[in-house]
């Protein structure tokens, strides 16, 4: 008579085969996916910060160009009292498109860094009917040269001064 080994029943510990062969690979894939998601998130935030800092830098260039335009107009006002004198020389450069009229004088120029400023000077500007008049200076500064202000990436800042 031949004896055969009886297999243990299903509930016994001897009857189970180890069923964790793919656990290590699954854990490695999940860990690498989590690290990849975190790396992509950090890269996205870094990219947005670089774009934002570049935008702030260009806005600063435009603001400084507008401020230079206001200073040039004030210098022109102090130098040429009648308002219809010759073109002012700002930042050691003669301004471009100088058009003096009794009602409004406009000009534009580029500063030493190549940033454009368009300036409009209104000698007698009134805020309302029957109020006193002011001299109004509106200076629009750009972060690009005067030939490139129609570029869609050009940043502009405006300063208005009432004297």
Key terms for this structure?
about 160 residues; alpha+beta; 1 helix; 7 strands
Structure description:
The termini are far apart. The relative contact order is 0.13. It is built from one helix and seven strands. The protein has one domain (24-162). By secondary structure, it is an alpha+beta fold. A hairpin with a 5-residue loop joins strand 3 (96-99) and strand 4 (105-110).
Main sheet properties = 5 strands, antiparallel
- Tell me the overall shape: rod-shaped
Cα distance spanning the termini: 122 Å
Measured as a percent range, the helix fraction is: 25-40%
Helix-strand category = alpha+beta
Strand content: 25-35%
Oligomer: single chain
* Strand order, largest beta sheet: 3-4-5-6-7
Number of strands: 7
The rounded Rg comes to 36 Å
Number of helices: 1
Quickly describe the structure.
The protein has 163 residues and is an alpha+beta fold. Helices cover 35% and strands 26% of the residues. The strands form two sheets. It has a five-stranded antiparallel sheet. The protein has a two-stranded antiparallel sheet with strand order 1-2.
How is the topology of this model organized?
Blueprint: H1 23-79, E1 89-90, E2 93-94, E3 96-99, E4 105-110, E5 116-126, E6 133-142, E7 156-162
Antiparallel strand pairs: 1-2, 3-4, 4-5, 5-6, 6-7
